Amino acid sequence: MNRQHQRPEVAAIYCPLWHNYDHATAWKGEGWCEWELVKNAIPRFKGHQLPLKPSWGFFDESDPRWAAREIGLAADHGIDVFIFDWYWYSGVKLMEEALERGFLRAPNRRRLKFALMWANHNWADYFPAPFDQPWNSWLPIRHSPRDLTRVIDYAIAHYFRQPNYWCVDGRLFFSLFQAEELVKQLGGPAATRRLFARIDRRLHAAGLPPMHWNAMVWDTKSVAALKEAGFHSTTTYNINSTGAANAGLVQPYAELVEAHSRKWRELAAAPLPHCPVVTMGWDVTMRCDQKLPWPFPRAKRTGQHDYPYCHVVVGNTPRRFGELCRRAAEHVRQDPQQPFAVFVNAWNEWTEYSFLLPEKRHGLGYLRELKKALG
Known about the structure:
The protein is α/β, with parallel strands linked by helices. It contains eleven helices and 17 strands. Helix 7 packs across helix 8, helix 9 packs parallel to helix 10 and helix 10 packs parallel to helix 11.
């Protein structure tokens, strides 16, 4: 499809971490969700912009009345799609309430499209994460043809028939956080392509369009194999580091803007169309042990500043974010592969300091800049 003169759609990552769910109660206690980490955050250095103070308070996103407010705010500022982080572990689902009880029951839900990004990574206790120790593993990710078929059947029953499910070029958009791991566990690119073909036949029998498989990637190394496996496009979940050697624990957002441009150009040269991502910010200290002093030491086990005891991005003002969004729009116009969307990390990833929802310091500043650049 020729998109040369079309506005790319704007797809914001939605992290469904902000309501209580049964597994959280079992693991962490009655009523727990990640709002507790936001509430208890402390500033680590002079000028550190913590604690966060969400303008809407610590609301329950699984309440359709709150979901309606989110939908209205997003649609009014040029966002077309919420990409829900979606968690499935061999039939065990986590945090689907934000989508199924909140978004899909909101009276204005058709103002936004939605799609799934299967966050197919192991689930462990990093709330907060122990420093330089193994995390308490809760749910491992395991892939098989049978399990992927179950995923698709669940999505057919609950999502794909929804009138506002996002389609790209007539195909149902579905993203994988660890696409390379999926292909590996399914037996390689050829086996994966055969399974994808069977899934398309299953969708056809259900009266639905075929799949648009999207892969989250961070470099070009796996893209050729992903194309062979049947993927149609790539994007990046987040670009959170300047990429400079020995960049340190505090990295300027202005340098992160330049890192985005470099990464977009690199991935645009790969064999699949690549949708650029714009990152609002990065600071994971809310998921760290609050008693560990700053600056964080390197882990003895790895010799690195391991997640979440890693760097903080500073200086991410709305104006600079707007500049990044304008660069993304220009990149899309110039990319001969004509990517169909610009992705935004994130709508509400509070504990990684990447959000568009209003907060005390800048209010609606980030959303207004997004609208000016991409709306």
